[in-house]
Amino acid sequence: MKQVLIIRHAKSSWANAFTGDFERPLNDRGHRDAPRMAEKIKARGVAIQAFLSSTANRALTTAVYFAEAYGKTKKDILLFPELYHAPASVFYKVIETIDPEIDTVAIFSHNPGITAFVNSLTETSIDNMPTCGIFAIQIESDRWEDFSTAKKRFWFFDYPKLDL
Q1: Do residues 105 and 50 lie in contact, with contact meaning Cβ atoms separated by under 8 Å?
Q2: What is the pLDDT of residues 78-134, one digit of tens each?
Q3: So what CATH class is 2-143?
Q4: Separation CA 78–CA 32 (nearest Å)
């Protein structure tokens, strides 16, 4: 069985109107939420083996917080420029390229594509993927290349404001 955690980047800053969308950093809440959610997932016993991220600043920064919680660094994160504002079809293509030795991955990306993607996976659907939200599934296959056709089961959904 394979497992995928689909994670939307943490809350980003709109403080500088001249910062392009791709370069937008996390805001204070984002810098609080990302490490907290990473620790929360780790405390659940989820053993993330690989981190895949959009190359946009806010997604990559979120991925770094998660990687660090698992004893990894920024250089351990696999970068996929195509995950920046990706439609659901791109997520399928990226997942099917994952090393077969890896069983659990975390993928960091953006709305609206990330919401469309998670809603294409199982019968469990959400209205909107919140910032630093985590939608996790399990795949009834040992082969990533079978991802698009394999049976998928909803595992859990979590986000920062769920605890408030």
Answers
A1: yes
A2: 999 999 999 999 999 999 999 999 999 999 999 999 999 999 999 999 999 999 999
A3: alpha beta
A4: 23
Selection from 124, 122, 114, 126 nearest residue 89 by Cα: 114
Place of tokens 């990330």: 114
- How far apart are the C-alpha atoms of 148 and 12, rounded to whole Å? 31
Annotated domain spans of the chain: 2-143
Return the residue matching tokens 């689909």.
6
User: Minimal CA–CA distance to 160: which of 34, 51, 42?
Assistant: 34
- Measured distance CA(87)–CA(20) in Å, rounded: 20
Helix pair angle (57-69, 28-43), 10° resolution: 40
- Enter the pTM of the model: 0.95
Write the single-letter amino acid at 127: D
